[in-house]
Amino acid sequence: MTSRDTDAPPPFGSPALRLPDALRGPLKAHLAELKEQFLQLGWGTRGGFGSRPALIVIDLALWWTRPGQPPMGSNVDSVVDGACQMLRAARAADIPIIFTTYDYDPADPPTPHDAKCADNIRPEDRPFFELDPRVQRRDDERIVRKKYASAFKGTNLLDMLTALEVDTLIVTGVSTSHCVYATCRDAAHTFRVVVPRQAVGERCELLHEVNMLDIDIDLGDVLDIEEVEAYLSGL
C-alpha cells in the first residue's frame, strides 16, 4: 500500500462522513497491521473460488445511487461503475445474476428498528426503489425485493442459489456496513464469498474501511476487481 493510496479519500460516499485527512493514513496503516495479526492467528486466509459462481448486486437503486436523494442518496458512481464492470464479466461468463432492492410497503407495521433510523419514505417515493438504469438489468436477471439488510432474510435467495447449485457468491453494491456486510455474513457458511473491492461502498468512509476488513478476515475474500474478472473469464 503506497502513501498515496493511504492518504486519498475514497471516490464514493458523503463528504460530511469522510475521515479527517490527518487520520486516514494512520487508520489504514493500523487496519493493515490488524490484518497481519489476524493472519498470524490463522484468520483471514483465502477461501478461494469455486466452480459455480453467481453475482449479486445489492441495492443499486435510485434511493441510494442518486446524490441528494434524502436521506440515503450519495455519490456512489464509482461503485456503480465497478458493479457494471462485474456485470459485463458475469454476462460474458453466463453465470446467474441477482439484483436486490428494498421491498417498500406503506402498510408494513412499525418495528423496533424504526426508532434507530428516521422513516422518511413516503408512498410517492416508490419509483426510487427501482434499479439504477446504468446497471441495465436484463429480463432473465432476478430481482430480490427484501425487507431487511441481508438479502437472505425473509427471501427465497438461498432457495434460488441452491437450485442453481451455486458455490461462490460474488457480492457487489451498497452499503458496505449494512446490506453488503449482512449478506456476506449470512452467505459465509454456505458459499464461498468474494467481494470485489472496487464494486462496493457506502456513505461513511470509516464504516466502509472497518467492515471491509471484517469481511476479509472472517467472511470472504476481498479482492481487486481485475482478479475476479480473470476468474470469470477463465470459466
Let me know the largest β-sheet.
7 strands, parallel
Which stretches are low in confidence, meaning pLDDT under 50 for 5 or more residues running?
none
**Total DSSP E strands:** 7
| CATH homologous superfamily label | Isochorismatase-like
Q: Based on CA inertia axes, which overall geometry fits?
A: globular
Question: What report would you give on this structure?
Answer:
By secondary structure, this protein is an alpha/beta fold. It has one domain: 3-Layer(aba) Sandwich (Rossmann fold), CATH 3.40.50.850. It is 38% helix and 14% strand. It has 8 helices and 7 strands. Strands 1, 2, 3, 4, 5, 6 and 7 form a 7-stranded parallel β-sheet that branches. α6 links the parallel β4 and β5. α2 packs parallel to α7, α4 runs parallel beside α8 and α6 runs parallel beside α7. The two termini are 30 Å apart.
Structural topology:
Blueprint: H1 3-7, H2 21-40, E1 53-58, H3 62-65, H4 77-93, E2 97-102, E3 142-146, H5 157-163, E4 168-174, H6 176-187, E5 192-196, E6 200-201, H7 205-219, E7 221-223, H8 225-233
Parallel strand pairs: 1-2, 1-4, 2-3, 4-5, 4-6, 5-7
Helix pairs in contact: 2-7, 4-8, 6-7
Short description:
By secondary structure, the chain is of the alpha/beta class.
Give me some keywords for this one.
235 residues; alpha/beta; seven-stranded parallel β-sheet; 8 helices
